[in-house]
Amino acid sequence: MSNNVSFGAIDDLCVNTLRFLSVDAVEAANSGHPGMPMGDAPMAYVLWTRFLRFDPKDPKWFGRDRFILSAGHGSMLLYSLLHLTGFDMPLDQLKKFRQWGSHTPGHPEYDIERGIETTTGPLGQGFATGVGMAIAQRYLASLYNRPGYPLFDYNIYAVTSDGDMMEGVSNEAASIAGHLGLGSIVYLYSDNKITIEGPTGLSFTEDVGKRFEAMNWHVQAVDGNNLSAIARAIEAGKAERTRPSLIIARTNIGYGSPAKQDTAEAHGAPLGAGEVRRAKEALGWPLSPEFHIPQEAAEEFRKAASRGALLKKNWDALLKGYQQEHPEAAKGLVKAMEGMDSKALEDWEGVLPAFSPSDAPSATRSASGKVLNAVAKKMPHLVGGSADLGPSNNTALNGFDYFTATGAGRNIHFGVREHAMAAIMNGMAQSNVIVPFGGTFLVFSDYMRPAIRLAALMKLNVVYVFTHDSIGLGEDGPTHQPIEHIASLRAVPNLTVIRPADAVETAEAWRYALSRKQLSGPVALILTRQNVPVIDRQGRGAKGDLSRGAYIVSGSENADPSAGPDVIIMASGSEVHIALGATDALLKRGIKSRVVSMPSFEIFEAQDAGYKATVFPAHVKARMSIEAGTTMGWHKYVGSQGDTMGIDRFGASAPYKTLYERFGLTVEAAVERAAFLVSGKKDGLTVETTV
Amino acid sequence: MSNNVSFGAIDDLCVNTLRFLSVDAVEAANSGHPGMPMGDAPMAYVLWTRFLRFDPKDPKWFGRDRFILSAGHGSMLLYSLLHLTGFDMPLDQLKKFRQWGSHTPGHPEYDIERGIETTTGPLGQGFATGVGMAIAQRYLASLYNRPGYPLFDYNIYAVTSDGDMMEGVSNEAASIAGHLGLGSIVYLYSDNKITIEGPTGLSFTEDVGKRFEAMNWHVQAVDGNNLSAIARAIEAGKAERTRPSLIIARTNIGYGSPAKQDTAEAHGAPLGAGEVRRAKEALGWPLSPEFHIPQEAAEEFRKAASRGALLKKNWDALLKGYQQEHPEAAKGLVKAMEGMDSKALEDWEGVLPAFSPSDAPSATRSASGKVLNAVAKKMPHLVGGSADLGPSNNTALNGFDYFTATGAGRNIHFGVREHAMAAIMNGMAQSNVIVPFGGTFLVFSDYMRPAIRLAALMKLNVVYVFTHDSIGLGEDGPTHQPIEHIASLRAVPNLTVIRPADAVETAEAWRYALSRKQLSGPVALILTRQNVPVIDRQGRGAKGDLSRGAYIVSGSENADPSAGPDVIIMASGSEVHIALGATDALLKRGIKSRVVSMPSFEIFEAQDAGYKATVFPAHVKARMSIEAGTTMGWHKYVGSQGDTMGIDRFGASAPYKTLYERFGLTVEAAVERAAFLVSGKKDGLTVETTV
Lengths: 691, 691
Fold this sequence. Notes:
- The structure is a homodimer.
- Chain A is α/β, with parallel strands linked by helices.
- Chain A has a six-stranded parallel β-sheet, sandwiched between helices. A five-stranded parallel β-sheet of chain A has the order 1-2-3-7-6, sandwiched between helices. In chain A, strands 16-18-17-19-20 form a five-stranded mixed β-sheet.
- In chain A, helix 2 crosses helix 9 and helix 5 (125-144) crosses helix 16 (418-429).
- At the A-B interface, helix 6, helix 7, helix 8, helix 15 and helix 17 of A face helix 6, helix 7, helix 8, helix 15 and helix 17 of B.
């Protein structure tokens, strides 16, 4: 690709075009970050016009290189590149930078139709996401490439910043990338020596290159304003196939701004009209019109697009040959490229393990492991692992290889790196083929939240396997016992949280997670450490109704107020068994109870009002929830006259049965509290702290 | 201290005592981690008996060295050390390891009376917390040490693991520790080559020493079974005063267990009776009794206690001399050592800036900066900064120096390291003198959650300054707009979340945060980017009533149902102004509304039932909440017949006023929805998704 690495005046013109499109857009919005595009335009220009493989007419082309603007605040640099190289990003959009309804938001948002590979802005995320893209590349290459048919040989490029380098998640990701020898990674690090609070020297004086060398990276340092030097470095980075590459480019934030270059002032605010004028004068740029694109520059950028179109054509021909020579593999590949959806696995009933009330009680994490293994045999694109808790999370795919520096198996040892795992899962999902899963203890979802949030924002289909979901984990104590985590995850938009009550619901939860169309959003499975029996659903359908989010598992379904239940007890996960245990004792007191298993708030919320009213008829005001975690979130369903059984404090270290007793989560307590509700003695709208 | 670094048979006996006390306790609990204590006992033994300064009779002695078991799963090693050196940790407690009510939980929990300096278990946290302890040490030394009076010259020791090394937070912390040249840090890294999933080689092959050298650490490698080599390395680590030290000790997990040494099996489960027997035989240990402590070993350990008592006595003498020679400084110091509480600042009224409804509208983050600066002048132990967002968070203490490699100012450049910042704040708070504060955008609280959780679990008085608290931040878009964060923080036990509505409430929030006794728990201040006016409280007391968590700011206070309000509109932060804006229009429709400012759920929950009923009388069932974030959590207060105005989706990039309109958070919408509630047309217990 690197056929042309000599540069001249036209290239300087192009670089300045990138700079001032960005500057003008920030001015127009009166908001944004001009300094980064001004400083990083040279390296972005070299990368995009000499190396990056892309076809603006087919932005989803599977053989394209991936580009990540990890320093997402410099979004205008990306939008300028997309416009100039001919993506669906008209100039009009640049003029609407940061406005309602535009395709040019303040930070890049995943929009593959317009060439935006991933959402960035929260620092470190883009860096780590790229590692997932590189893992996906190698996995797909291993699965589909054949001699003479290197269909998946793309590289992962990124522009990163000092902020990316300081965030812990990037170090986690760099460590595993070096360990796995991900040679497809070529990252440019814009070392502009400036952070928001001032020179990086105020807080960041380490030897970044040496740190990355220690993690098995190929490291180079270049002058970020020297186009030829940048090109040579990228060339060398590409040539290094067994180590990821970091190119440390000394850049100048706000390059060209007489007063603001190399200062923090250039970072996060418009330059201001006067300084824009002085910068344009300094770099010999016409003062008007704004959004000026010299004709020669426009033509030069279009050459990259033409080059890309040719590459794409060649790739299509390669695929055609592949289909003839390797029809079986091609079939799977084409199906995969069309997108994983419910058709990926047609025979769910035949694949899912069967569980029955006569089985010995088992942890839902165990059931999850069985289901995952059964399904994985049929879904070659299900790839994942655990952040060093595989034996506890039951995430290993038995009989399949591991992903290593020399192999591309589908089991991944993520190491004790929960945050990077979640970001890597995002990058894997962005292959649009792989469905990644990753496990850890639920309590450590805290370490992953920034990356979970991005998965939710991008609606990526990833599956979190969060086990040890409550005080039920017992002796490890409060540092390991989730209290606030289920509620905190439910609070995240687009994230579907599922806490199955038994092995049957666990199988249905996996079915739900893996049956959805692409871009339906992440799913978090919340699983027990401790054993629970399989619920006897007494003729209500052996598999329950997890696909409704909440459903009746016991008691009257009659909606007639005169015959209906006296009390509704709703619960999730292991606490459904407490609710079920209370029904007989309540009946002995003449109280008809209904038990609702509520594995997922989000799925239930998506049901129609009619179904909701069937489960929670308005006339039944005596309602109680049971969940071994914070009661936050349940008041919506129990109502003003209801009660919430939960744990609004931190846990403790003791055997789990002791903890359930001490925290009042017992059948006996459920009976008493439900009976009290039915007695009508509870005052409706008095706000009481839950016991 | 290192007078005796030669070792003999008695020392081996002591090391084995540590090993088998730990092994026997894990067996008795039938739960726990035997491998780490078996492998790390030698280095812990050398550290505790030859170097660590402590006085078991005065565990809170300010001059003591700090010891952190960052590899918290090896808690039995710590409990064994505490027992043998004479802390308040009787053998009986070791026998109750991991049982309800014991002082020996599964992972160490902050318990300074028993010598446990900080809670550990979630990996990386102890490592990073120690960096905060080192910052505190240097700050206090700078404040109080005088020539000849090195009152604060303690070291920070830790035992860390490969898990600690893999977590991103430790890299963030290591980077800033190296930058600041924190020579008081001497960390032992137990390099046992084993993780839960198998050999570390499966996921972790970097050169850790080189990585730390790149971050300006002093790095040594030793044989972790060689007591003399360990002692020499600690000696050298102590001697290095301008760089933190890392001692990479090659250890053997499960040392002595014939079948399990150097395997993952030794990590997280009891060895089992047979293997315990074989291990005891292998190391020449009596098979019975369990919890055996040879007399000679007991005596040897007690020498360390005697040495510590002497050191403490000398320190007390030093302090006495200091009090005579530097009476003014001593006065401040003694007051500080007695614990920061409300007495630290007696004249709140004279110190807090006054704000008035006639002031120009200003962001609560600006008001926060003014208050913080005013208070800091009177509170020398208020120390903090921002994760590179100081100019946005308004966290700089003007006129005060910065904390650097050569100075110990009270402003800290944390760099783009939110997670380390939060963990460092924990360590600073554990000085029991410093009150740390740290700022970032609210959305990035996600990066800090594991450390926030530990602050809450330990009830440390730290103050988070979370600005840019909603879609009100505008153009930066959904990656930077918090939606789920306020609810997610409210879900954390012991954490007090305060979202002030104006400058007046902001001042009161700081007063609240800084007036509490030690160990009252962390406070999160949630502050706007955008300007808001100062509320005209119309004779209700110029300062409102933030100390109640929720209070009436407008409308009838009459509790008589016949005269009371028709609707209660409750809100927090900037949305209180929407609620206030709606009152007049509602009155024109004949609807009497009450507006409740609710800056803090947690403070309100702590009020008595009588006060709660005054604010939210049971007979007023038409209730509405307004908050520019997820509606989760508000249903408890609005009740079944209420309504919640909020945002249950991600935000968007646009000017903030546009966003408020597009998301329906306007005075007009509030009027319509409140009027609809009053009309009684809303069905009580139907579960509806919020618009």
